Structure formats: C-alpha cells, structure tokens
Amino acid sequence: QVQLVESGGGLVQAGGSLRLSCAASGRIFSINAMDWHRQAPGKQRELVAAITSGGTSNYADSVKGRFTISRDNAKNTVFLQMNSLKPEDTAVYYCHADGLTGYIGFSSWGQGTQVTVSS
Questions:
Q1: I need a labelling partner for 25 at 20 to 30 A (CA). Which of 7, 45, 95, 118 fits?
Q2: DSSP E strands: which ranges in 63-111?
Q3: What's the Rg (C-alpha) of the chain?
C-alpha cells in the first residue's frame, strides 16, 4: 500500500504564494505520473497540474503561468508552487500518484490540504 501525505496549505491573501508538498511512502518500486487536483465547494474535482517521471509537465489553463509543479524522484515527493493566488484558487488540494509496488500497480490519493485565498 502506498500512502501520500500533503502539507503546505493554509490561508493567504490574494496575490500571495504557497508551496504544497506531497510525499509518497510504502513499498514503491516506481512512480509514473504525480499530479495535483483540487475541489472547491459545490464543484467537481479538477486536475491542476501533472508531471511525469521524466519531468514533463502540464497545467490547467486557469493556473498556467502562476503555478509550477516539480518533483524529487529520489524522495518520491511532488511540489506545487502557487504564485499570484486568486480567491478562485480556494479549494482542497489533493495529491495523486500512480506506479508500481513490485509487479502490482497502484493509484493513490492523499487526504487533501485546504488552500484559502482571501480577497
């Protein structure tokens, strides 16, 4: 079983920055994609950013130019640097990863971390 633990959420004023971290632990053989999703109240969960093991990244249009995803493969950790935050970025942010534990695939989610942006 693979566990993901997020950290770094909080309350920030519009225009401010936050950095989220997500560390994967357990019997991990390899991790393919790691990504960040978010869910605002009353809305569906949406993909914010994703990054492959080779470092290729992609972003939702709403965060391009403001958010940067990165990862440390040696530490099985993914980061999300969020700059120029807007009130509409307020949501619970979830980390997700998929990969292999030995010969068995996994797809795991973190418990979520709240990000609140005040106007």
A1: 45
A2: 67-72, 77-82, 91-101, 104-109
A3: 14
